[in-house]
């Protein structure tokens, strides 16, 4: 086992001989002396110049470590400060959304309604439940059974935007086309094979 009580500076080049008698050489990306874990970066084995191989080496299974080039110890780069207010608002928004989804499920929203809600949320942020209906940007409401003909303008909603209604209809139409394709791929519409039975002569 290699002596691992030393410290490896980030950027140093080292060679490790593993218990399989294999030599690994690379640049030190990280070193944890507590668990004896050394992370090395070496040129890509597939020959691509834009990529690298990353090796995580447990020094407990290494017989020898040789420092080929020592990097000067440099202070770690300072981490960017976190915007705690923004993170808190994002967490609250996510919790509120999950709560609305739970409430919708408890209100008896069908699985297709839940899937459509999530589908719309991929492209539009301002989507929420209004009972068992889906309210988009406060302007368009989608009522059960969530088909394209159930997409209507919300009269008492925000100021109407002529582009929102047709866009939401396209999203709903695309969702149902995708669902139909999934059903076809799962074999639900496959033509049954019927075997013709001939009478057996005595």
TrEMBL record:
This is LSM12 anticodon-binding domain-containing protein. Residues 80-180 form the AD domain. InterPro entries: AD (IPR047574), Lsm12-like (IPR039683), LSM12_ABD (IPR019181), LSM12_LSM (IPR048478), Sm (IPR047575). SMART domains: AD. Belongs to the LSM12 family. GO terms for molecular function: RNA binding. Residues 1-71 form the Sm domain. It comes from the Eukaryota. Pfam families: AD, LSM12_LSM.
């Amino acid at each position: 086992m290699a002596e691992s009580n030393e410290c490896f500076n980030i950027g140093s080049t080292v060679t490790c001989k593993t218990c399989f008698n294999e030599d690994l050489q690379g640049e030190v990306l990280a070193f944890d002396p507590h668990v004896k874990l050394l992370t090395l970066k070496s040129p890509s084995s597939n020959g691509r110049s834009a990529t690298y191989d990353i090796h995580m080496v447990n020094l407990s299974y290494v017989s020898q470590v040789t420092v080929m080039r020592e990097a000067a110890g440099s202070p770690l780069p300072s981490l960017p400060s976190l915007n705690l207010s923004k993170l808190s608002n994002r967490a609250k928004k996510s919790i509120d959304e999950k709560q609305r989804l739970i409430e919708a499920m408890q209100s008896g929203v069908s699985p297709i309604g839940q899937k459509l809600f999530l589908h719309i949320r991929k492209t539009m942020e301002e989507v929420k439940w209004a009972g068992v209906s889906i309210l988009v940007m406060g302007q368009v409401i989608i009522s059960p059974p969530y088909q394209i003909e159930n997409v209507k303008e919300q009269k008492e909603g925000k100021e109407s935007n002529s582009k929102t209604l047709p866009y939401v209809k396209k999203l709903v139409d695309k969702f149902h086309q995708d669902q139909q394709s999934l059903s076809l791929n799962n074999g639900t519409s496959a033509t049954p094979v019927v075997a013709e039975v001939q009478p057996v002569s005595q």
